[in-house]
């Protein structure tokens, strides 16, 4: 059961989540992050124990990569500023579907970037078609 403070934190987290044009639904890691926020539990690194080939930021000297979307918001109070980072698209698995038949992890950054843009353009267009008849979320007092 949630206490009054946790219920308020849940309300704040849901409002922040649905207000984001980037987050399509509250599920998986999004829900996990909300629950951790509600209970004031530190969020574990989602990349622990996983390997990946593409990163948002790379230190060229140490060859260490980070996923910028794993940065967490420590304070979601009204008036605070925070950034959203678009989630990574699995463009290698979807290469043919996106029109990039020869795309690999070794492709030029320009090709990888073009595939990412194509992926997100398709996703945004698809979502806009499905959301034509939906009301946007608004808060009334």
TrEMBL record:
Domain of life assignment: Bacteria
Name under which the protein is recorded: Uncharacterized protein
Source organism of the structure: Planktothrix serta PCC 8927
């Amino acid at each position: 059961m949630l206490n009054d403070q946790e219920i308020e934190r849940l309300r704040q987290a849901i409002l922040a989540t649905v207000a984001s044009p980037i987050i399509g639904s509250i599920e998986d890691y999004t829900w996990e992050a909300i629950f951790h926020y509600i209970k004031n539990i530190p969020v574990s690194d989602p990349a622990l124990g996983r390997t990946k080939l593409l990163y948002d930021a790379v230190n060229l000297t140490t060859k260490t990569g980070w996923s910028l979307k794993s940065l967490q918001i420590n304070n979601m109070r009204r008036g605070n500023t925070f950034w959203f980072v678009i989630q990574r698209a699995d463009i290698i698995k979807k290469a043919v579907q996106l029109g990039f038949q020869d795309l690999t992890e070794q492709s030029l950054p320009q090709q990888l970037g073009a595939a990412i843009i194509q992926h997100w353009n398709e996703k945004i267009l698809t979502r806009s078609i499905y959301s034509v008849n939906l009301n946007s979320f608004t808060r009334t007092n």
